[in-house]
Every structure is written in structure tokens, then in C-alpha cells.
Amino acid sequence: MNTEDNKDSCPFCQHEESNLSDRTSHHDDKTIKALVTRMNRIEGQIRGIKGMIERHVYCDDILNQISSARSALDGVSRLLLEKHMKSCVKEQLEAGDEQIIDEVLQTIFRMIR
Asked: What top-level branch of life does the organism fall under (predicted)?
């Protein structure tokens, strides 16, 4: 099956022998906007932390900001995992590809380390 045949499906789901560079997501514009907005906010937090370090701000204050940034990244991860499970993973399971279960488990285990 060609990716041109079904533009609403995950291109990876259509290619059994694809490699990582061939994989793309197919999230709706609302999801992309939400993810980009969150990442822009996190990027600002990271720049702020760097500035705090350069200004010799009290260590505990910097550590609290790092914790906030980490929590924000975790939020992005959870949202992306949810969307991945409801789209790509669901489609692959429906197509009979149970290898996706191992992939998702590895991802989740990495996330909870």
C-alpha cells in the first residue's frame, strides 16, 4: 500500500519494512498546535533556567524551575503517547501487527525510568 492511497493513516503503519527515518505522525492540526505551544513554553523555561544559572540565582530556585520544566515535558510526553495509542497503535493492531505492543512497552518503560 502506498502512503498516497490513504493520507489519513500513519505512513509507518503502511510500511512493514520502513526504518525510523520513514516514520511520521499524522496528528490533527489542533494536536500539533497544542504540542508546539507546550514546547515553546518549555523552551522559554529552559532559556530562563540558563539565565538563572548565568545570574548566579540561588540553587534551590533553579532546581525548582528544572522540576517544573521536567513536569511540563512529562505532560507533552503523556499527550503524545495518548494520541499515538489512539491512532498509530490502534491502526497497527487492527492490521494485525502485534509487534507494536513491544514498541509501545519499550517506550513506556523508557518514560518511567
From this structure: Bacteria
